[in-house]
């Protein structure tokens, strides 16, 4: 279950990052509320996953899911620039996540 919680926490991180962008510096109420609620959920699930998973693994996977997910949302939803260097960076992050998962026994 720890891996499930960690993946959901990572997805919530993507959601809060998107809505933080939409909050325009916390000046819009509903995007701000969504940001705060999903942040709390993300941190809460991360803490539950950390009961079983090693700190380094859990935190790396959580931030990696958030980083790559936010990168993809930026491209697909917000129309951000796709460049070979940015894509390579995302591929390297995913490679690191796979290696981190493979190196963990939990």
Automatic annotation (TrEMBL):
Pfam families: Multi_Drug_Res (PF00893). The keyword Magnesium does not apply. GO terms for molecular function: transmembrane transporter activity. InterPro entries: EmrE-like (IPR037185), Small_drug/metabolite_transptr (IPR000390), Small_multidrug_res (IPR045324). It is a multi-pass membrane protein. Keywords: Cell membrane, Membrane, Transmembrane, Transmembrane helix, Transport. SUPFAM superfamilies: Multidrug resistance efflux transporter EmrE. GO terms for cellular component: plasma membrane. The chain crosses the membrane at residues 27-46, 58-79, 85-102. The keyword Transport applies. Gene3D superfamilies: 1.10.3730.20. It is found in: Cell membrane. One of its GO terms (biological process) is xenobiotic detoxification by transmembrane export across the plasma membrane. Belongs to the drug/metabolite transporter (DMT) superfamily. Small multidrug resistance (SMR) (TC 2.A.7.1) family. Gdx/SugE subfamily. This is Guanidinium exporter.
């Amino acid at each position: 279950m720890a891996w499930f919680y960690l993946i959901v926490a990572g997805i919530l991180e993507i959601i809060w990052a998107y809505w933080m962008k939409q909050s325009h510096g916390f000046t819009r109420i509903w995007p701000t509320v969504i940001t705060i609620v999903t942040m709390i959920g993300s941190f809460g699930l991360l803490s539950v996953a950390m009961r079983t998973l090693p700190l380094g693994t859990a935190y790396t996977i959580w931030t990696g899911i958030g980083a790559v997910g936010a990168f993809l949302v930026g491209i697909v939803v917000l129309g951000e620039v796709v460049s070979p260097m940015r894509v390579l960076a995302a591929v390297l992050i995913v490679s690191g996540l796979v290696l981190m998962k493979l190196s963990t026994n939990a």
